[in-house]
Write a structure and sequence with these properties.
By secondary structure, the protein is an alpha/beta fold. It has helices at residues 41-44, 119-123, 126-134, 146-153, and strands spanning 11-14, 22-23, 27-28, 50-51, 56-60, 63-71, 78-82, 94-102, 104-110. The protein is built from 4 helices and 9 strands. The chain has a 5-stranded mixed sheet, with no helix packed on it.
């Protein structure tokens, strides 16, 4: 819900599209692509992933990437959202559809193993922090705080 006196765009998620969404493998790559639109990624990007001693390994454009499978926190699901029509003005309502869902993703770093210090890993701690703050009576011992490390350490 937005305040009436604050400008902003309301974005609605069409949850009806959730039942038709694909369940695709996800990869978080350490790069930025200067393109925003449809791409046939599965046609051009098929990684030949090798399981190393400590991590998954792959070469991307001649660079060594090390990866780790990361699970989405229990009770949550990852969504890939798509907007088919962008409105002409900021005041118009926007609708996005669920294109794909995922319960885990492979987090890749350049030449180093993903760690608890990576932003993506730290962001997955927030659902547990939110639960601990919202229900402090359920978190009476230090073992409760061990929930946070389960996501980071895998």
């Amino acid at each position: 819900m937005m305040c009436e006196n604050q400008p902003g765009t309301l974005i609605q998620v069409d949850l009806g599209s959730l039942t038709q969404a694909a369940h695709d493998p996800m990869h978080l790559l350490p790069c930025e692509i200067q393109y925003n639109g449809h791409a046939s990624v599965d046609k051009y990007f098929t990684p030949a992933i090798h399981q190393g001693i400590l991590a998954k390994e792959v070469s991307f454009r001649g660079r060594c990437l090390k990866g780790k499978e990361v699970k989405i926190p229990a009770g949550y699901i990852g969504l890939v959202l798509e907007e088919n029509h962008r409105p002409c003005s900021e005041e118009e309502r926007r609708t996005v559809w669920v294109k794909s869902t995922f319960l885990s993703f492979t987090h890749w770093n350049l030449e180093t193993l993903p760690s608890a210090d990576d932003c993506a890993m730290m962001s997955l701690i927030w659902p547990n922090i939110s639960e601990a703050v919202s229900y402090p009576h359920l978190c009476t011992t230090w073992s409760c705080w061990g929930l946070f490390s389960s996501i980071v350490t895998g």
